[in-house]
């Protein structure tokens, strides 16, 4: 499932970088270079807005205040510097988080996916349906194919949940292990490959193609098909 991301940024190089990156990992991207454009694009009801604070016409805080009554999605501010009073102002007008520049684009993607996941749960939009009749119910922690529930272990579902919410993004098994098992867990990352083997076997037994693709030498990614 593709989510719509509105990127509001007046630095052309950064805007192009963000648009290219998120398009590559299967987000539908909308862009704006000013507050006025951002307000117009927000009418398209994106799933998340990445909003630069320093815009040429009026700042991101004012944009957020103007659109907050019309959009319910998470709004994440981009800023080069921030003080406690700035944070309070941002949260007061309806912002959900702050991303400090410079930032890791992989971490930014993970935070965006986490906010979308929380928003799906809070608004009741907890199901994602894919083109081949595969349905993931994130709230019930169930996966269905052709209206039949697949029997999945807890960690198997967590891998499906994590990768599907980071659609198109590649993670190596060490990173998946750290995020889902924890840094202090006993064991090693080879358990991830075994869980993915089991997921694929269960998908195959149910007659559905595996959405988890191996990117040789790099890791795994979810593909919508």
How is this structure best described in words?
- The protein is α/β, with parallel strands linked by helices.
- The chain folds into two domains: 4-123, 3-Layer(aba) Sandwich (Rossmann fold); 127-222, Arc Repressor Mutant, subunit A, CATH 1.10.10.10.
- It contains eight helices and eleven strands.
- The chain has helices spanning 12-24, 35-42, 60-67, 84-92, 105-123, 154-165, 173-181, 190-206; strands spanning 4-8, 28-32, 48-52, 75-79, 97-100, 127-129, 134-137, 142-145, 148-149, 212-215, 219-222.
- The strands form three sheets. The protein has a five-stranded parallel beta sheet with strand order 2-1-3-4-5, sandwiched between helices. It has a four-stranded antiparallel beta sheet with strand order 6-7-8-9, with no helix packed on it.
- Strand 7 and strand 8 (142-145) form a beta hairpin.
- It is elongated.
- The N and C termini lie close together (10 Å).
Structural class: alpha/beta
CATH hierarchy: architecture of the largest domain: 3-Layer(aba) Sandwich
CATH first level of the largest domain: which class? Alpha Beta
What's the multimeric state? single chain
Terminal CA distance: 10 Å
The total of beta strands comes to 11
**Overall mean pLDDT score?**
86
| Computed Rg | 19 Å
The CATH H-level homologous superfamily of the largest domain: Response regulator
What shape does the CA trace take? elongated
In spatial order, strands of the major sheet run 2-1-3-4-5
Sheet with most strands: 5 strands, parallel
> So how many helices?
8
């Amino acid at each position: 499932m593709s989510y719509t991301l509105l990127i509001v940024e007046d630095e052309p190089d950064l805007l192009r970088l963000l648009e290219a990156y998120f398009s590559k990992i299967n987000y539908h991207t909308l862009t704006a270079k000013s507050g006025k454009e951002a307000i117009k694009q927000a009418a398209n009801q994106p799933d998340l807005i990445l909003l630069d604070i320093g815009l040429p016409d009026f700042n991101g805080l004012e944009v957020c205040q103007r659109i907050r009554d019309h959009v319910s999605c998470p709004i994440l501010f981009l800023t080069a510097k921030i003080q406690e009073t700035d944070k309070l102002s941002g949260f007061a007008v309806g912002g959900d988080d702050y991303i400090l520049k410079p930032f890791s684009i992989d971490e930014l993607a993970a935070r965006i996916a986490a906010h979308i996941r929380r928003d799906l749960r809070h608004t009741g939009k907890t199901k994602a349906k894919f083109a081949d009749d595969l349905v993931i119910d994130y709230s019930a922690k169930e996966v269905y194919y052709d209206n039949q529930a697949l029997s999945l272990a807890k960690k198997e579902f967590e891998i499906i949940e994590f990768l599907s919410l980071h659609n198109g993004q590649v993670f190596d098994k060490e990173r998946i292990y750290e995020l889902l098992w924890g840094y202090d867990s006993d064991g090693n990352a080879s358990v991830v490959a075994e869980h993915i083997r089991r997921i694929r076997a269960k998908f195959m037994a149910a007659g559905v193609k595996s959405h988890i693709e191996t990117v040789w030498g790099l890791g795994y990614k979810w593909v919508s098909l």
